[in-house]
Amino acid sequence: MALYRYDEFDRKFLEERVAQYRDQVRRRLAGQLSEDEFRSLRLMNGLYLQLHAYMLRISIPYGTLSSAQLRGLAHVARRWDKGYGHFTTRQNIQYHWIRLEDTPDILAHLATVQLHGIQTSGNSFRNITTDPFAGAAADEIEDPRPYGEIVRQWSALHPEFSFLPRKFKIVLNAAPDDRAAVKIHDLGLNLRRNEKGELGFEVLVGGGLGRTPILAQTVRDFVPRRDVLAYITACLRVYNQYGRRDNLFKSRVKILVQSLGIEKYRQEVEAEYAAMGVEREELDLPDAVVAAMQAQFAAPSYPDASGDEAELNQALAAEPDFARWVKYNVKPHKAAGHAIVVVSLKQPGKVTGDCSASQMELLAELADRLSFGEIRITHDQNMVLPHVRKAALYDLWLQLGAAGLATPNIGLASDIICCPGMDYCSLATARSIPIAQALATNLAQREQEIGPLQIKISGCINACGHHHVGHIGILGLEKNGAESYQITVGGSDNAQAALGGIVGPAVAAHEVTATVDRLIDVYLRLRRDGEQFPDTYRRVGLAPFKEALVVAR
Amino acid sequence: MGDPVFRLVTGNRLRDGKVIYFVGAGVWTPLIAEARLVEEWDGAALLAEAQAGPPPHPAIAPTLIEATRDGERVVPVTLRDRIRAGGPTIAYAGG
Fold this sequence. Notes:
The complex is a heterodimer of chains A (553) and B (95). Chain A is an alpha+beta fold and 553 residues long.
């Protein structure tokens, strides 16, 4: 299993942190701490209070889990929650039915498998995300996860940045095909090579969704690999100094970059970077450090699987349902005879991103048998077995199918991103899950004809469901005491990222399905060969989509 | 004229976060049907009573909400409070 392993310092730190938290909970339950005093302490450990119970959010760094970690998460679900967990768009997991008095034991258990809830809340660095196919993708330059771990260690409880103006989300990507939604992050790092073949990062800053959606812009095209920590330190310093702490709605770095302009922000960063002097040496990232970290993420020893193709082709020819699953859920792997398998958590009619303890345990077992003990979480709220031999795909498909995990819909209309919405979340202004369920059930019938389509739903303006960058985005609002849904089209979260345009007045919950059907019909009528929804939208604009809805009204 | 709108106090129970309702005399219940309902003008006094008491207070963030009566049932006015009272409106993996 090739993953970062905690050293003695990491283990001791986490044990001490759990003990400290256990005492805080004891004092809270004894009445020695008020809720006002305790709130920030619990949030620092990932514990929120939502509509029905406490919610515990556990960080899954760069979306990578070992089978032992997934079993640890399943154990929490079964013993301390209602038997399931919910995977989020930040590649994290949330438990929605947690008791405060159980949380020290939960965190102690998770610490034994190197997991915790630190920095999953508050004005801190949040979980660092990356391509869920990292280390396996046929098209990546290098595995980005070693850099993810280096940045995670740099950012964890960083003393200078422990009181940022607002939360800060970092993403890494190492493939030309952006599968990590780089441009909607506060800071994005795109691994690339310069004309001399040297490795470095494009640094982007100022992306984010929420009430003011903005796409990140490039601050520097190429920062040499060894300088990247110093450079992002400079980026953070400018934000830390000038970011708006006086206005919650203007506190994210995107607002700073927008108000200064990218040129001025870049000047400030470069000036800070130039002035760092000896600090630059302290933050230097020598090749030896990178190599040591890369050794922890070393690729598995793939067996010679070059003969697997024939066996796979036989199964594909014999079983159309299997062929359909392979077409949508199996992705190219860098090793011959191997494949990346995306496990859909989007069975139409079920809750997007929910996974039962039994399903987690099954996936852990399958990972051990078929994927070198590794599992990934995607920001689309699916799971990934990253290293599967092609000859094992048929057996895997059968086992996943028996557990409701073989829905062949990755990238299709029923593969909907959806936040928990008002069924759980105390910030939500409308429900999102029932909308996703109705849409998925309706669209599953014709999703193959539609082809790739990303529908993303948020239950409030905070946009956890990334609706702004959905090909079709849906935002749940409250209007005169009733739920209503504002719909956008033309968004995208890949390398050609774009924000969607509003198609018309918000519609009632019961009108969403028919409205989305009409929008899809417009797309199907107007698309040209080879076009996907964003391509058609870029060519024809918003007008035909708006007109279709006006005519329907 | 619509149904009369009453006031009641709700919060989340400290030890497990469950939704609870104020009955009076320091007592809280998970059943909204048992909540004490008062007229609008008595709401502030009810809230003050619910907030009182030595630490640890059994409820986090006691809040005044609106509800109507439907026979024996107490029905919160807002969807959010109805979902708090009745639980998620969807079936979930473990539920």
